Amino acid sequence: MVNILEQNVPTTASVGSFGGARTSKTRTDNPYFEKIIWLLTLLRSQSVSDYLDNISHSMSASVIRSLADEITVRQDTFTHEVDLALYERALAFLKLKAISTSSGLTQATALRKLDELKNLPEDWDSYGADPISPNAIEKAKSIVTSVMIAFGDIIGNVVQLTDVIPIADGGVQLEWVGPHAELEIEISPNGNIGLLYISVSEGRRNYEESKDNSLNDVYTVIAKLIHSQYSN
Amino acid sequence: MVFEVRQIEEDDELYRRIPPNYFKTNGTISSSAYKLNGRPDREISANLAYLTTIAKTLENRPNFGVGSLIARVPRSNGLEVVHDPIFPDNEAHSLIKGASENAQCSELAKNTRILKRPA
Question: Per the CB < 8 Å rule, is A126 touching B19?
């Protein structure tokens, strides 16, 4: 089993961004980033300030500020690759290429479904399941909210949160679907995050699993899910 | 008095009782249906279809669903499928043994055919 964290994908992320600059030497080793870099090369004709002006109507002020701050810091470090704003523009572009027409769960619906899990009694699965841990529910709500803020309209267009599933040990599972991949986020009763990324290639399902992840790891794998539309 | 232990063939069908919460919005089931305590269930209970019925598999949980797996599926994912009758209650009881990775649970869920949806 391949650990997601061992792959050469960005390992840092913050609100409004997930393309960590510190992995720039290894990013181009990864085919899916090669495709993004190819796309961004086409987009380089637009200046950063023009780009920020253009997207300001669709992104929150905090995200714009975050972008602007990071661009200032990183503009000198992206000598061989792309800057963060162009990366974000690629995501906006990907939204237009959305394959799925389903919008999945809205944030409000997902949070309501998570709250409803509090009502599950002991042995709700007939195999001896525990009640769902309030800690797991709160952590799951935090993840849903953070991802939806960070990725904005891309969630619902390119990638959907489709299901909120209880786990028999009192944890919670969030199921996400992208164009050519799926993601299961497991939150244990004590709040630990497990990730199972399922990609489909030539009719075969490939699994990448990792345990004890951070919120930044979640951002990274959601980004990978978004870019799965280029995998087939 | 005990039940005869049968050899489960590749094409034999297995029934699995599935709680309503494991049914996804697209009509399939979550991999959680094959986990125990949040981890892959190393001994997944199922019923050998030709020795039971959907109603018997539901036991006293009429609002649950029932899914079907062909024995070849777990075996092709490295799992063992054995008949494990429980005398005198359930002659059909069988076990899918050895699951240790979430990927195996996901494969089982993906290949489960839904026979009865939750009421």
Answer: yes
